Amino acid sequence: MRIGYKACFPARSALPVVLAASLGLSACVTPTAQRTSSWPDNIGRTIPAPTAPGPGQNPTPGASTAHTPTPLYSPPVAVAPPPKVLPAYPKSADEISSQAVLSLMKQARSARAAGQYDQASGALERAQRIEPRNYFVWSALGRVYLDKKLYDNAESVAMKSNSLARGNVYVELENWKVIAAARQAQGDAIGALQAQVKVDEIQRDLAGG
Q1: Which domains can be identified in the chain, with CATH numbers?
Q2: Long-range contacts of range 147-156, CB-CB < 8 Å, 24 or more positions apart?
Q3: In the predicted model, what is the mean pLDDT of the chain?
Q4: For this UniProt entry, which residues form the secretion signal (predicted)?
Q5: What is the rounded distance in angstroms from the CA atom of residue 175 to the CA atom of residue 159?
Q6: Comparing 142 with 55, which gets the higher pLDDT?
Q7: Taking a C-beta distance cutoff of 8 angstroms, is the pair 97, 84 a contact?
């Protein structure tokens, strides 16, 4: 039996043609570019607030660091001065005087209270001769001279008492009162004011302020 030529050699396969067509189509079609979203990535997310850098850290460039400005001037704090402490000065003639002087000073007080100023000054002058540096005697004599309107004598004796008292504010207070009154009685208003300033200063010291 004769086999035909076409039977022995079948027609060319169509596979190479299909492959070539497929390659040609793929070469004509360009790959689709990836779509990039034009929306920002932070939509729907919470952006943390910038924080100030810690100690030893450098701030991030462009970051906002909020801080409290340091004041350039701090007002001074008022501090009350400590109260002035006075030395333990004698407050009366009883602490430094002999019995004879104390007796004469007692006589002078009684005579002065009765308006007998000459007797009062006489008793104090005798006490003065016994204890010439007793500033309490000088101070009491200045008050009696003021009562007798011997203003120059009153101021002079009171100043002598101050010089002997050496800062004893209890005696100086009475002496400056005598000096202020004596100056005022003689029409020395400025001198009287100066003496009154001394009185006020001593009174403040005695009050602790």
Answers
A1: 97-207 (1.25.40.10)
A2: 147/112, 147/117, 147/120, 148/117, 148/118, 148/121, 149/185, 151/182, 151/183, 151/185, 151/186, 152/182, 152/186, 154/178, 154/179, 154/181, 154/182, 155/179, 155/182, 155/183
A3: 80
A4: 1-20
A5: 7
A6: 142
A7: no
